[in-house]
Amino acid sequence: MSTTIPGHREGSLEAPTRHPLDWRNPAFYDEAALTAEMERVFEICHGCRRCFNLCNAFPTLFDAIDESPTGELDGVEKRRFQEVVDHCYLCDMCYMTKCPYVPPHPWNVDFPHLMLRAKAVKARRPGAVRMRDRVLSATRVVGALAGIPVVSEIVNAVNASKAGRALLEKTLGVHREAPVPKYHSETGTRRARRVAGRVREPRATATTTGKVALFVTCYGNRNETDLPEDLTVVFEHNGIPVHVVGREKCCGMPKLELGDLATVAKYKEANIAELEGLVRQGYDIVAPIPSCVLMFKQELPLMFPEDAAVQAVKARIFDPFEYLMLRHDAGLLRTDFRDGLGKVSYHVPCHLRVQNIGLKTRDLLRLVPDTTVEVIERCSGHDGTYAVKKEFRAASVKIGRPVAERVGKAQPQYFSSDCPMAGHQIGSLLPDQPRPTHPLRLLRMAYGL
Q1: Where are the domains of the chain?
Q2: 370 Cβ contact partners less than 8 Å away, ≥ 6 residues apart
Q3: pLDDT per residue over 385-397, tens digit each?
Q4: How far apart are CA 406 and CA 429, in angstroms?
Q5: Less crowded by CB within 10 Å, the N or C end of the chain?
Q6: Candidates 3.40.50, 3.30.70, 3.30.460, 3.90.320; correct CATH number of 336-447?
Q7: Rounded distance, CA 345 to CA 378, Å?
Q8: What is the 3-state secondary structure of the chain?
């Protein structure tokens, strides 16, 4: 098809704008209307193909078209549309970096939200969502159960054994070679609280209140419990009092990726009530996982555009390094680093890139003497639960391999990613390299804390 229409330029040089997600409208779940919209957008994608080198959704679509009897979209069986949907993990990179037809272009292409709509329609069909997917997206429940003392030791031992991984693959469809997290009985919340409270008087700037509430996240609470502690130590070293949020639920991103919008709404009610109350008390919000920050910055505001409390949290939630660099701009970041880090290969997660805040982690690490930072802006292929699923493992490895090769070629002292899951995905493709080290831990090490 032609990618030009009379009266309109081919692409757009304007910044993309995002329309709210009309998920409470019954028409949103009309399958005939969904199919018609998928046909419209897929036809545009077929005529453009700029996104061929992002996730596997686009190669899946283009292969289906090229292999069809007509060589066009009209020759593709509708059942193959779901294959495209299943390969989309809602990273938003096509929308933010590649597509020239996003709004305000009149074609109004929002591929990730179309895929989200298709996932939501599937989630409403009885029996359409596998039990495996429901379990993997119930991060807080699984973490609480697997984190029970003694149970955590058993779970970790099973996950570390070949026999255990074979059983996990057979029963849940979790690929035996995919990285799976460890579980800890001592929570990240407890560890952060133990080191918090040493700074009493916040110093505000034009852009920050100077005191933060830490949203620990499911992963930080049960899997990498050092993350909340590292963040708290670094922030309080910089004179920023840290209050650890106590009654948080999952941010909702795993359920969003499943299309379970009703559960996302349920989590939102609990989290926003807590976080908006803290904002009213003068706190800024930070979280150590980019996907969780993105959920409150973008996805919930698009799902609930009329909710003033959601918008209030959106305005005051920050990536940790974004926050620290705002403090640096105001002359309040301590630069009394004790140790250099040498060469660091730094992977920028997709859910951090689409926040449009720039490379704040890189910028801060470059302030450390005797430190060089090589930036890798490519998808790791992990993407929530995508990389651990048996049917998608090969595709995730193909996506992540170029990142791993760049790390291997660089031979750095450290390789790092703001997303710890992406770090472990890269590490699984580089068995001879040291384990990934989160940027917050690198910063703590540089301070000598």
Answers
A1: 26-124, 188-326, 336-447
A2: 340, 341, 342
A3: 888 888 889 989 9
A4: 11
A5: N
A6: 3.40.50
A7: 12
A8: CCCCCCCCCCCCCCCCCCCCCCCCCHHHHCHHHHHHHHHHHHHHHHHHCHHHHCCCHHHHHHHHHHCCCCCCHHHCCHHHHHHHHHCCCCCCHHHHHHCCCCCCCCCCCCHHHHHHHHHHHHHHCCCCCCHHHHHHHCHHHHHHHHCCCCHHHHHHHHHHCHHHHHHHHHHHCECCCCCCCCCCCCCHHHHHHHHCCCCCCCCCCCCCCCCEEECCCHHHHHCCCHHHHHHHHHHHHCCCCEEECCCCCCCCHHHHHHCCHHHHHHHHHHHHHHHHHHHHCCCEEECCCHHHHHHHHHHHHHHCCCCHHHHHHHHCEECHHHHHHHHHHCCCCCCCCCCCCEEEEEECCHHHHCCCCCCHHHHHHCCCCCEEEEEECCCCCCCCCHHHECCCHHHHHHHHHHHHHHHHHHCCCEEEECCHHHHHHHHHCCCCCCCCCCHHHHHHHHHCC
The Cα–Cα gap between 391 and 302 comes to 31
Taking the C-alpha atoms of residue 403 and residue 425, their distance in angstroms, rounded to an integer, is: 10
Q: Classify the C-alpha dihedral 282-227-433-343 as positive or negative.
A: positive
pTM for the full model? 0.92
pLDDT score of 147 more than 90: no
5-15 per-position pLDDT tens digit:
444 555 556 67
What is the residue type of 330?
A: A
Question: Measured between alpha carbons, how far is 424 from 60 in angstroms, rounded to an integer?
Answer: 26
Residues 6+ apart with CB under 8 A from 91: 54, 55, 112, 350, 351, 354, 379, 383
C-alpha 188/C-alpha 228 separation (Å) is 6
Write the pLDDT tens digit of every residue in 32-71: 999 999 999 999 999 999 888 888 899 999 989 999 999 9
Both structure tokens of 68? 């069809």
pLDDT of 148 reads 73
What's the rounded Cα separation, in Å, for the pair 49 and 61?
A: 10
Amino acid at 221: N
In whole angstroms, what separates CA 205 from the centre of its chain?
Answer: 28
> Would you state the structure tokens that stand for residue 323, as one six-digit string?
């926050």
Q: What residues form DSSP beta bridges with 285?
A: 213, 317
Six token digits for residue 267: 């989590």
Burial class (CB in 10 A: 0-12, 13-18, 19+), 5: exposed
